[in-house]
Amino acid sequence: MCCAQITFSCFNSYFSYSLHSTPITDHLPGEGPQLSELTGLFVLRPESVTDITFVAKVDSSNLIKRPVMKWLKGKWLDLGSKAGKHLQFKESYDRNTKIYTYEMSIIKVVDGDAGGYRCEVTSKDKCDSCTFEVSVQGRSGDRHLITLLSSSIRRIHHYYVLSFSGLARSSVHYSFAAQRKEEPEVDVWEILKNAKPCDYEKIAFQYGITDLRGMLKRLKKMKAESKKSDAFLKKLDPAYSVDKGQKIHLTVEVADPDVPVKWFKNGQEIKPSANWQDVPDLEFSFPCISTEHLIIILSRSLSLSLSLTSFLLYPTRIIFPRHPSASRYVFESVGNKRTLTINKCNLSDDAAYECVVGEEKCFTEVFVKEPPITITKLLDDVHTVVGERVEFEVEVSEEGANVIWMKDGVELNRDTAGSKYRLKKDGKRHILIINEATKEDIGTYYVYTNGGESKAELEVEDKELEVLQNIADLTVKASEQAVFKCEVSDEKVTGKWFKDGVEVEASDRIKISHIGRIHKLTINDVKASDAGDYTFVPDGYALSLSAKLNFLEIKIEYVPRQDPPKIFLDTGSSGGKNNITVVAGNKLRLDVQITGEPAPTVCWMKGDQVRKNWLSSFTSHHTRVRYFICSVLSEAEGRVRVESEKNVCSFVIEGAEKADEGQYSITVTNPVGEDKADLFVRVVDVPNPPENVKCTSVGEDSAIITWDPPAFDGGVAVKGYLMERKKIGSPRWTKLNFDVYESTTYEAKKMIEGVLYEMRVFAVNGIGISQPSASSKPFMPIAPTSEPTRLTVHDVTDSTCALKWLPPEKIGAGGIDGYIIEYCKEGSDQWVRANEEPVGNIHYRVKGLPVGEKIKPALEILMYSGLDIMFSNHLGSGKPRPVVTWYKDGVPMEDRTVGTRTSEVDTILFIRSAERVHSGKYTLSVQIENMSDSADIHIQVVEKPGPPIAVHVTDIWGFNAALEWKPPKDDGNCEIIGYTIQKADKKTKEWFTVYEHNRRPSCTVSDLVMGNEYSFRVFSENICGLSDEPVCVLNVFTPCPGLLYNPSPYKEMDVSSCPKFTAPLVDRSVIAGYSAAISCAVRGNPKPKIIWMKNRMILGEDPKFLMQNNQGVLTLNIRKPSLFDGGRYSCRAINDLGEDEVECTLEVRGMSMQFSLPTTM
User: Which residues form the Fibronectin type-III domain (predicted)?
Assistant: First the structure.
């Protein structure tokens, strides 16, 4: 007895296991993700999943051109042409990563979507592709089948059903059922072998073969003779055909029964699934069963352990299905036979298979036939009238099926139907459209599929003409217009107009028009002879429309009209006064409206004097008004003239002058009355130039300029002045101000000392700028000369006094022309000039002095420019010799370090070594008998200041340090004018000056090195120099470790936006045969994808349509449209952020032939 112990358990998933085979991998061909090896273009490849969206990513960083993606099904079917509601494609681009993302979505997956798919990407000379599969399966049930098969039996005649409902009662129930007999299959390949090549397509359509290329390739291989093989006793047939949803067996016989066999599908090995775990729970023992097969149904929630004792003598094969897709592939090994069974075949099983034994192979190809296409909704009969649109609609069982349309036995397709018929597919619906049906379209229409047919009758009748608007009777007057108008239902209907039974011919006065459904007869300048009965008769119809034209004659008796004249004068001035302002040189034109009947006489005058002699008179053709021009206005065609135009009299002055200013009047008279109007003409101009421009004083680099306002301001107030200057000898004038300067005194600056200049001035008013003024006299900017020094009295007599002095320390650019000496008596402020001519020497004797008077002399410098500066030095003089006494701070001086020396003419105070204590007020007192005089001298002894105090570092940040200190206690007896700051690195110990003459007691030291130790010192400074000793401060400059400048990353502005149409499509009506275009405008970022549709159908690469996109302006050009091209057009813009759509209606009208016969005289 042979005993085998088998333990298994059932879970929610399916699995498969064989006692005589290796474990199967998790993914079977066509069931799991299968990615080909990366070739460098794909970043992410689509996976074989049962979801409805597939994603592929392509890296374009190394690509020259934009990649092109194609989605294919099977071997050659391009899915791009099938885009619609069922298949949707999406493309996006990431500028940062330079990766293109392509998506394919399948909406509402059906069984027909199963099969092998391939995506190909190309870019110039680079390409890449990968394959993936889609399997469509129903939902798994709550049970799993475990089939125990005998290895010696080839066919299954019975099966046993083991119900677990009886396990609780420890009993097993068996039931037997006969297997359903299989219907005989038709061998399509035998039919194809015996058929003609021209019938291959019809046979493929009948039996549901979609891969025509594979079919022809297989037929070619079937005709070749097979070679004998050492490994195979019987090879696979050249091809197998199976209906969708059925099973198929692929069987070979091998020479060695123990040799391993491998099966491949499309070059990929078919492997069993992974091992499953034994979970023993219940144990049953069965006697030897002489049956061929045992099928056990296990519940999800139970585990079973079977002990098979004495299990026959047959080799046994056990299959544990893991999931529905894995159970579709069954491997059998019985003796020398090896069989691959494919259960529930779908379109993904339509592939090439091979069986490999060692180094030898045998090939076959399996073709999966789809079930026949049936018609679920039949055609309906149609009854219509001529010119209407007809649609035959049929619905089939599957989407994308092929149907054949026929009329009275003749096939209708895109080649034979022409523009009259149009075939349309919409999912399962197939529509035959007939535009503008005629009686020639009457007949029987058929539609065929490989599984059914339907027919319908079309009846077409003539269309009756309806009158939408009848013509109406008219009553008109002489010279008026009469219009007869009618409207019929058919815009193509033509007709004729008749008057009293005679056809009306078109002429210059009579117009006949036909626009759409409206017919018009227009009669201009109606006469009495036009009265009568008018009739419109449409061509081809027993119909007439009639109306009557009545002529109304009116007699008018003319009575002359009399109206007094009236002047309508509006100058736009305020206050009720007619004032007109005109700029000199401009043209003045005043239009005055005049009314009156009979025609009035017009007279223009200037001033109060009335002129009696008339130069000319003329009559206006339009208003019959007579105009007269007074002699004061010169002739009618001169500079000052009067013009007439209809009811307007115009007063014109060409190139207004100042003499044209004054009071003007206009008088109009006729037999009925008189009217008069006055106006004042004011002529304004630019002002006259300013006058009397001169320089009043000069400085080192400046001068004071004055001028007088212009004598005439041009009739408008002067706003200000513009000044210019130039050097003597230079032709170039330089503007000194660009804004108007209001004053008449101006200080010109930034001039060169010792250079002669000229000035001129412009006056500015509301009209413009005047002519330049006359240039000023030349002047020279010079620095003032300092006073003479050391003025002393050298000798004194009764009436004379000899003076000596030294030249000025600073002499200006103009030099010194001489000196002038003046004197005055003590107690008086009147100075008397001692010399008439300037003295060139530095000594002079003043004569004619009064005896016994105290005299104060003064010295005056005469310079080149004529300007003088006076310095006074008061000295005492007299006899006998004066007594000189020196005081310090009001106390007689006793300090031995200060010495004095007095001579007959002077006294000297000297200090050999000045110190701070010598500072103070020194007084010189001179006394002669009972008269005395004194003078004060202030002496300030200064020295270098002391160092600053309290120097410290207040803050450290980045590369900077802030220092502060306090002023020194000792300022050196004078003002501190600044501080000097120095720094030194501890490594080099070299001092570098950071700031000089720093006025504030604080500073910021920059450009320091982070982490270095620095020393700082500060010197105080006065007029004597820097302090001898500085104040130092030591600081370790160590910023925080994390103190680094991290600039914020640049954030690119997000300009992304969903598509938005800024200009919509507009409904249009065009003529057939003439090219037309419809346009709209869209914006969006990233650049949206544009899709043009007609009647919700995408327009492909039809050469009749030219699609253009210029900077967001979208244009669809239609080349010579026909009536078939009319319909609803729409434009859709799509990007990653959304989509937008606009639409319009395009009406294509046929050309109407219009002509007119020549009028017979």
Answer: 689-785, 787-883, 947-1042
46-67: b (≥16 Cβ within 10 Å) or e: bebeeeeebebbbbbeebeeeb
- pLDDT at position 774 is 93
Query: What is the C-alpha to C-alpha distance for residues 740 and 748, in angstroms, rounded to an integer?
Result: 15
| Spatial separation of the C-alpha atoms in residues 361 and 677, rounded to whole Å | 123
The residues that bridge with 953 in the sheet, in sequence order, are: 963
Bridge partner list, 1134: 1089, 1139
Name the domain boundary from 520, 552, 584: 552
- Residue predicted with more confidence, 463 or 399: 399
Given CA atoms 1057, 1059, 1060, 1063 in this order, what sign does their dihedral have?
positive
Distance CA 184, CA 243 (A): 12
With the CA atoms of 483, 489, 490 and 494 taken in that order, what torsion angle do they form, in degrees rounded to the nearest 10? -30
Q: How many domains does the chain have?
A: 8
464-469: Cβ within 8 A, 24+ apart? 465/489, 465/490, 465/493, 465/538, 465/541, 465/543, 467/543, 467/545, 468/517, 469/518
**Is the pLDDT at 441 greater than 50, yes or no?**
yes
Q: How far apart are the first and last CA of the chain?
A: 130
Tokens of 87: 């298949």
Cα Rg, the chain, nearest whole Å: 61
Q: Are residues 57 and 163 in the same domain?
A: yes
Residue 529 backbone dihedrals phi, psi, to 5 degrees: -75, -15
Residue with tokens 């993904």: 348
In the chain, the percentage of residues whose pLDDT exceeds 70 is 76
Residue 1138 has a pLDDT of 93
CATH of the domain at 107: 2.60.40.10
Q: Are residues 771 and 820 in the same domain?
A: no
In a domain, 365, yes or no: yes
Residue 1140, domain member (yes or no): no
Q: How confident is the model at residue 1079 (pLDDT cuts 50, 70, 90)?
A: very high
HEC string of 278-307? CCCCCEEEECCCCCCEEEEEEECCCEEEEE
Side by side, which strands form the sheet with 161-162? 161-162, 293-299, 143-150, 316-319
The reply to whether 127 falls in a domain is yes
Same domain, 205 and 150: no
Q: What is the mean pLDDT of the chain?
A: 76
- Tell me which of 407, 438, 461 is where a domain ends: 461
E-strand stretches of 781-882:
789-796, 801-806, 816-825, 832-833, 843-846, 855-863, 870-872
**H-helix or E-strand spanning residue 217:** helix 212-223
CA 691 to chain centre: 61
The angle, 0 to 180 degrees and rounded to 10, between the axes of the packed helices 212-223 and 200-207 is 110
What whole-number distance in Å separates Cα of residue 102 and Cα of residue 810? 92
Task: Give residue 319's domain range.
Answer: 232-369
> Residues 197, 236: one domain?
no
Strand-pair partners of 340: 250, 331
Sequence-distant (≥ 6) Cβ neighbours of residue 601 within 8 angstroms: 617, 625, 626, 627, 628, 668, 669, 670
The answer to the question of residue 59 being in a domain is yes
Q: 385-429 pLDDT, tens per residue? A: 888 889 999 999 888 788 888 888 788 877 766 677 888 888 889
CB neighbours of 866 closer than 8 A, spacing ≥ 6? none
* CA–CA dist 568, 480 (Å, integer): 35
Residues 62 and 146 in one domain: yes
Judge if 76 and 141 occupy the same domain: yes
pLDDT tens sequence across 569-621: 877 666 567 888 888 888 888 888 888 888 888 888 887 644 333 333 333 33
Kind and range of the H or E run holding 888 = strand 883-888
Residues 421, 324, single domain; the answer is no
Quote the distance between the C-alpha of residue 244 and its chain's center: 55
Position 995 pLDDT exceeds 70: yes
Q: Are residues 523 and 575 in the same domain?
A: no
